[in-house]
Records
---
Amino acid sequence: MKIKKDIAISDSGFVFNPASGESFTVNSIGIELFNFIREEKSYEEIKDLMLDKYDTIEATFENDYQDFIAIMEYNKLIEDKE
Amino acid sequence: MKPKYTIAISGLNAIDNPGPGVAVARGLKEAKSFDVRIIGFSYESLEPGIYMHDLIDKVYQIPYPTAGTETLMARMQYINKQENLDLIIPNFDAELFSFMKIAPELEKLGIRTFLPTEEQLEERQKINLPDFGEKYDIKVPSSKAIFEMSEIYHLTDDFEYPLLVKGKFYDAYVAYDAEQARDYFNKISAKWGLPIIIQEFIRGNEYNITGLGDGEGNTIAAVPMRKQYITDKGKAWGGISIADTQMLELTNKFIRQTKWRGGFELELMKTQEGDFYLLEINPRMPAWIYLAVGVGQNIPEALVRLAMGEKVPAYKSYEVGKMFIRYAYDMIVDIKEFEKISTLGEL
């Protein structure tokens, strides 16, 4: 899964899609997730990093991760699957 | 040394459904290749641009298109005697035809224009949009021109509600049933006459693109924008420049195939599936044209240079992610100024 290459995110979590003109804001954890996905880390890598850093369980993380991805896909921030 | 041109523009009605004149004037004042004296053409005494003396150097009231081209030409001759005009940029759809008609006579007076041809103007009319879409292979919503109110009760043969009820020049409303469609038919026809256009309602986000064609099929400028803040009249009160290659390709195709001459605006709807539908082609620069200037494509300036016969290189880029945010502003105007434009037709 890849974030579209032109999508920009600022340090404050402002996401801008220059192709559509749409903008979004994400919170600090959203910024981390966004950047991990942009770095093309695998789900397993991201999960390990987040579970190390935050006091949460795997099931909760997986739910939140899938929600985040679904929202990104809905808003066309992810490259279309080949 | 830079040349100095005297350029007349209309569309000074910077109101809630604004004409493009004030924005065009800003672009011209910021032109790097020439200096300019701007002459405003007004129709009503309360058009705000009349009183913006830092942008508009002198204003003349001109007759409505319904007065006919002879009356318009007589007024142009008078104004030209005072001002020695180099160029006229009409900014209203409704007046374009009149200016196109008198363009050869204006030319004899040394006044240039840079307008689409009659054929180009005609085939992009709202009534002709379905044929236009078919001819140039561009997706357009299905539409139909109606001349009588009774036709509203047979619309469901071809359309589903909601649908759009549009005037031939301006105004568009979404009607959810026949009763609403009838009300809008009356409202629009009273203002703009017949026919009324019935158009399929396409759900999606509104995008616009403004551009400039050189009349030979080349795109000189093109800036796409997403409407961010839309007024109850459907006008963009805020927008952002975007980098949509699909929109730019569609614009190049439009210019290449029609050999469009002059400024224009394409109004598009993007569906959730990512398809663009062409809703309207406005045959002049839009009210938000200053965004194009602000992102690096001074379309009013390029239009003037084309009109003056210069070879104008195409703009290759623009800044993406720049916004325009319109605002209302109260000017304090002395009654003497209002009196002057109202009684003498000049200010």
---
Amino acid sequence: MRGRESMFTRGFRALTGAVLITWLVLPLIPLGIWSFARGWYFPDLLPRNWSLRAWEYTLSDTAGVIECLWLTIGISLAATFLSIIVGVPAGRALGLYRFRGKELVELMILAPTIVPGIAVVLGIHSVFIALGLNNTVGGVIIVHLIPTLPYMVLVMSGIFANYDPSYEAQARSLGASALETFWYITVPAIMPGVIVGGLFAFLVSWSQYILTLLIGGGKVVTLPLLLFNFATSNRNDITGAIGMIYILPGILILLMTARHLSGRSSAVGGFGTI
Amino acid sequence: MTQVSLKELTKVYQGATEPSLDRLSLEIASGELAALLGPSGCGKTTTMKMIAGLLEPTSGDVQFGGRSILHEKPEKRGVVMVFQNYLLFPYMNVAENIGFGLKMRKVDKREISRRVGDMLSLVKLPDLGSRRPSELSGGQQQRVALARALIVEPDVLLLDEPLSNLDAHLRFEMRDLIRGLQQDLKITTIFVTHDQEEAVVLADKVALILDGRLKQYAGAEEFYNRPVDEATARFFGGQNFVQGHSDGSRFESALGALDLPEGAATGPGKLTFRPENVRIGHAEASRNRLTASLSDKLFMGTQTRLKLRVGGELIDVVANPNEVAGISNGDELKISLPPSSLWVLAN
């Protein structure tokens, strides 16, 4: 098929590729330049003086950026892990079974992606204060589940809609225990979905600002919060350096998954037909 | 060697008013090959799943060798079920699929590979171990599914519609393979099917289930010659039912008075006989001679189906095409009904 693509198709593909790259990569270039600049003033096209000062500061112990990076990674990994633990069974229920009120449950799970975070978090804030979860890392991890779960559940319900539980019955019948069945039959079938959903969850958690700010109460400082602090205090060079670190996971994940998210191999699991 | 007993097995699904399976009692002798036959939705797959432990009965009991197994988990029952669509694990190759049950039993890897090799040659697929299930034909997948079940040497083997997904020419081959393996290994085997032909060619005994109830449990021939009622006879292709009265030796009806075999029911009832057991022509020794007129004729290749009018009744007859080649509608025809082919269904 590939050889038969028309000029138009190929041209359109090249055009969308170019637009996408312009849109996504171009805004990042000034940020990268800033991180190596020592002053960069209008009307200069490039900074007159270059320096590694911003990077030196960013990577030093005193700045606390590295510490903050590890905290952010920890929070995002924990939120991702919890999303998987909750999202897989929820996706299974939504994908495999029909039950009364299913549409309502689906809507409730999707709601956080529609309703603005700030509206949700103000209510949750008072609940978390009552529970003593405000200003804690645990509280931040839990509140991150609000935006990460919809993605996880949505991806997993898609996987389970294309899943035949008879395979599990067959494995049980052949002598596998419930746990062995899950490990040998269910996990390989849903793994691609878990990975894709997990990457989504990680990135969504990674980029949370308002939820972290309100529930963390300034005590739990993740990378986006730190980034914002520097951005508003006119330190464009340090903002640039932290910004570069901040976008790293996104780029890595994009590189790892680009192959799976495009074209004919975009199916992410299930048993399909054999 | 395991005898399987179902005792008053009943399943009422949640929210259902009628039971899907109503007090089914069956004894399947050790090493026997039994069929559960019935139209879709009659409760036969439900029965199978309850034996396999994949479904909990509402009441009743399943016993292997006289011992109830209802409290056992599916993987501990010694039962393996082969599903209709084979369900080969797509993430494993053929050898891994077949060896799965042994792996779950923590059998040594070298032992697994040796026994998988034996199994592959037993089901006549010696060189396909490294193939993916998606690369196999339907018949090959069926063999792999069977090998995967047999390798764990189950006490009881359950087969769900084992022949129905196969082409006509593969069915006989598969039938011989299943039958042969079952005889060699002496595994008590139960299969479900909606196809009476499949049940007849494969099974020692057939249990006919209609609307969740056991109608008859007998050898295949009895369903043709000695059905318990009209629904059973019709399920096996019975067409001829003539209302009348039996005195035990003769049956009075619109067809006249006909001699009955010994042991026929008495009183008012229906006379039934297979279309293929009606003899064309009057031989010297034939009893129950009748004269009929042809009302319709359908040539079907290896046989010709006739509709004959006798004393106001229409009866169905299957004849050898050559015997009835010359006759046409309205012609008179001599037929006879051998007493041994008649059967009375008491009202």
